[in-house]
Design brief:
This protein folds into 2 domains: 171 residues, Thiolase/Chalcone synthase (Peroxisomal Thiolase, Chain A, domain 1), CATH 3.40.47; 151 residues, Peroxisomal Thiolase, Chain A, domain 1. By secondary structure, it is of the alpha+beta class. The strands form 5 sheets. The chain has a 5-stranded mixed β-sheet with strand order 1-7-6-4-5, sandwiched between helices. A 4-stranded mixed β-sheet has the order 8-15-14-13, sandwiched between helices. The protein contains 10 helices and 15 strands. Helix content is 30%, strand content 26%. The structure holds coenzyme A. Coenzyme A binds next to α2, α6 and α7. It comes from Polysiphonia sertularioides.
């Protein structure tokens, strides 16, 4: 399928929020059998932020990130038409987006959650662009936010070393020019591997005596690290190449490679497969670990704050994760 944006949709502002508590690899080594050397050499992670303040949730981080994005461009929240919250760790299974809508004062916005794990922000941005493309909405707030520390088994060394908590937000706006906007996207899912990375729901209580209905609860994150690694390194370059080819572009046109911050080795392997120079990789993994749906908007916000990304730069954004789901967006900044 050939997909091209017909009307312009561009990111006009970003914001992010991280919890105050830093947790080093050394600290993790005090709770499971591992070491700073093992974690850093296998993942590139040095430390992560964890949301430890009592009563704080994904909603609070999302509100902070959203307010920063709005404040940066002095935009009133009532100008937002839609809020999409990409998260897999809501504090309400019915959705957390509506609380954010209320707290930031986006009184004119529809708000809903989107669950797509580490691909959530990419899929959220593409979803938002469709509303802009068909003329329904003009200003859309897309938030990627996760507090996976609540769902990590802190005695499982194969997963607890990886994840951190954060939120990132981007405001997508319709624009007349197609030049400095989202140029193309590609999204995929292979549900056959859904059990390779999941937070499964399990029934565990005795069935209700009258209704014969079982109930249960969600478990901790379960992951087949090797399979997820192989999937990311094989599928993400193909997705990026497809997206570039559809635009008659090549890897030589790419200025910045902004991948989901899962593992430094994945970032490097994808760049090498594409023959994209290492200094074009945007990475903040060492400071935050894998923050799931937040990782791309957080890294994007930091890259913009440090003036890395400049006008007209071609930015390739790719997310991947549980589902298994993956996708690419190409933006001319
Ligand atoms: N510290 C020390 N040893 C550890 C360890 C840890 N934290 N975790 C696992 N090990 C051990 C294993 O028990 C195994 O020991 P054994 O050889 O005696 O059996 C050995 O290290 C190798 O384990 P393995 O799972 O093969 O390691 P790996 O090289 O595949 O690295 C990951 C593990 C998780 C870092 C890697 O698979 C990975 O990054 N996968 C992608 C995960 C990911 O990005 N998920 C999110 C996607 S959105």
């Amino acid at each position: 399928m050939k997909v091209r944006m017909i009307q312009g949709a561009k990111i006009i502002s970003t914001g992010s929020a991280i919890p105050h508590t830093k947790v080093s690899n050394k600290k993790i080594s005090s709770i499971v059998e591992t070491s700073d050397e093992w974690i850093f050499s296998r993942t590139g992670i040095k430390e992560r932020r964890l949301l430890t303040e009592p009563g704080q949730s994904v909603t609070d981080l999302s509100i902070r990130a959203s307010k920063e994005a709005l404040d940066k461009i002095s935009m009133d929240a009532d100008q937002i038409d839609l809020i999409i919250l990409a998260t897999s760790s809501p504090n309400d299974l019915f959705g957390s987006a509506s609380r954010i809508q209320y707290e930031i004062g986006a009184v004119n916005a529809l708000a809903f959650d989107l669950t797509a794990a580490c691909s959530g922000f990419v899929i959220g941005l593409v979803t938002a662009s469709q509303f802009i493309f068909n003329g329904t909405y003009s200003n859309i707030l897309v938030i990627g936010s996760d507090v996976l520390s609540k769902w990590v088994n802190w005695s499982d060394r194969s997963t607890c070393i990886l994840f951190g908590d954060a939120a990132g937000a981007a405001i997508l706006q319709s624009c007349d020019s197609h030049l400095n906007s989202m140029l193309n996207f590609h999204l995929s899912t292979d549900g056959n591997y859904s059990n390779q990375l999941s937070i499964p729901y399990r029934e565990k209580y005795e069935p209700h005596p009258v209704l014969n209905l079982s109930q249960g609860s969600f478990q901790f994150i379960s992951m087949n690290g090797k399979e997820v690694y192989k999937f990311a390194v094989s599928q993400v370059p193909l997705s990026i190449l497809k997206c570039l080819r559809d635009l008659d572009m090549s890897v030589n046109d790419v200025d910045w490679l902004l991948l989901h911050q899962a593992n430094d080795r994945i970032l490097t392997a994808v760049a090498e497969k594409l023959s994209i120079s290492h200094n074009k990789i945007i990475s903040n993994l060492s400071n935050y670990g894998n923050t799931s749906a937040a990782s791309i908007p957080l890294a994007l916000d930091e890259a913009l704050k440090s003036n890395k990304i400049l006008t007209n730069d071609i930015v390739v954004i790719a997310g991947f994760g549980a589902g298994l789901t993956w996708g690419t967006i190409i933006i001319r900044w």
